Amino acid sequence: MTKTLFEQAKPILKTLQSNQYQAYFVGGSVRDYLMHKTIHDIDITTSATPEEVEAIFEKTIPIGREHGTINVVYNGEHYEVTTFRAEGDYDDHRRPNEVFFVRELYEDVKRRDFTMNAIAMDADFHIHDYFNGQQDIKNRIIRTVGNAQERFNEDALRIIRGLRFQSQLGFSLENETFYGMQSHINDIEHLSIERIVVELKKLTSGKYVANSFENLQRLNAFNYIPFFKHYNLNNFILDEAIPFTLLVALLKVQQPSIKGNLNDLKISNNDKKYISKLEKLLNQLPNIKSKSDFKILIYDYGEQDIQSILNYMDLHIKNHLPSFSPLIINTQSVKEVSKQLPIQSRKDIDINGKVILEAVNKQSGPWLKTILRDIELAIIDGDVQNIKSELIRWVKSHVEIQ
Ligand code: ATP
Ligand code: MG
Predict the structure, then answer these.
(1) Distance of alpha carbon 170 from alpha carbon 206, whole angstroms
(2) Is 252's C-beta closer than 6 angstroms to any atom of ligand 1?
(3) Ligand nearest to the CA of 160
(4) Which residues does CTP bind (predicted)?
């Protein structure tokens, strides 16, 4: 039951209350709880200042004291406790010029993005809902707290967040909210790409991505986002949840003449490597004409990544990506061939560079890399067994010819 996470955190609220402060659960956890969804992390909001929170609890970590956030460690769990905050004016469409700690819950929820995210719940599970968030949840509507034009003008990330929630929840956008997004879409170019990517990752993997992706297109949002702005996404179809990395790889393969720079996305090296691997793999698929090519493909890329591409075959076809033979490459055949591979990686070869050099009595050079690859291919193709003596014999005959 989702209530248990709140039950576990309840003593924190009670402790704050017994010290004469107000304290509430707020944000995504309350929204998800009201929707009977599983909740992951709990956010607590309080009238106590960060110093007051630190004074009350034994174990705290000042993770964002200047924004009012203190981590309270209770029963081994970490809880984010944030002081009620009001925001000053915004000049740059992304962050307030100043924030003030305040003592009223209303002031705090007023600065939150959407009505469904502005609901507070006290320790007794009583709801404090100043902006009819519950009604909007019931009607499955995403609506800004207050005037949409103003709220998106203050912080344009809310536009991407709204579409991300649409993708995750399947809600529709209230009219004024959509018009507000339209008026302020060009302000997203002032945002840091890191914040945009956090939201886009959640957006592409949402269950209802089809609608929100169409809205991104309708708003021409991609024109203002680094990397994406170089590509033409007008006709791209995204009607099922996919990892963000796959979307990037698909675009690169679909529009190869555009050389979008992955560095512009400021994603992790792992993400960059994975995208490049997917891009190469996707480009390789149409070249697979024989069983032998197929075995090498599986050896080079691994079963898992090939299977994950096969899971999105419909998308591949709808977006006119390079086609390949489903007779050779399909979920079943990938599984079978992968199981039959005599080696899984270079580490499994029963011979190494040193042994080869000794066997042929030749100086090391670029030929060594070539022969190692040739050995690999010969083993996979079944031309030679992965046994040291056999491999040495094979190397001797092949190196002499070269
Ligand atoms: P999730 O379940 O994905 O964590 P969430 O609603 O909790 O969704 P967070 O990014 O964790 O989203 O933010 C917590 C809360 O902070 C939100 O529910 C909202 O009330 C507020 N919030 C976050 N970002 C903004 C923003 N850019 N503008 C206004 N309020 C915001
Ligand atoms: Mg959250």
Answers:
(1) 9
(2) no
(3) 1
(4) 28, 31, 112, 155, 158, 161, 164
Q: Give mean pLDDT in consecutive 10-residue pieces for the chain, a chain of 402 residues.
A: 84 97 97 94 96 97 94 95 92 87 96 98 97 98 98 97 98 98 97 98 98 98 98 97 98 95 98 97 93 94 93 93 87 93 92 89 88 93 92 86 48
**Torsions phi, psi for 24 (to 5 deg):** -145, 155
Considering every ligand atom, which ligand is closest to the CA of 196? 1
Closest residue by Cα to atom 6, ligand 1, is: 28
Token pair for 10: 């309840």
Q: What is the DSSP letter of 73?
A: E
At 159, give phi and psi (nearest 5°): -65, -50
Distance from the CA of 66 to the center of ligand 2, in angstroms? 19
Residue 402: the pLDDT is 47
Angle at 328 between CA 324 and CA 329, to 5 degrees: 65
Name which of 70, 25, 63 is nearest 49 in CA terms: 70
Contact 288, 307 (CB under 8 A): no
The CA-based diameter of the chain, rounded to the nearest angstrom, is 88
The 10 Å CB-count burial string (b at 16+, else e) for 92-119 is ebbbbeebebbeebeebbbbbbbbbbbb
Q: For the residues of 273-288, what is the DSSP string, one character each?
A: HHHHHHHHHHHHGGG-
- Nearest-CA residue for atom 11 of ligand 1: 28
CA 315 to chain centre: 19
Ligand 1: residue whose CA is nearest its atom 16: 27
User: 43-46 and 77-83 as β-strands: parallel, antiparallel, unpaired?
Assistant: parallel
> Strand, coil or helix: what is 390?
helix
Q: Whose CA is nearest to atom 7 of ligand 1?
A: 28
Question: Helix 366-381 crosses helix 353-360 at what angle (to 10 degrees)?
Answer: 100
Q: Is 143 annotated as a binding residue?
A: no
CA 39 to ligand 1: nearest atom? 2
Ligand closest to Cα of 113 equals 1
Q: What is the DSSP letter of 144?
A: B
- Ligand 1 pocket check for 28: Cβ under 6 Å: yes
CA angle (35, 40, 43) in 5-degree steps: 90
Measured CA to CA, the distance from residue 250 to residue 204 in angstroms comes to 13
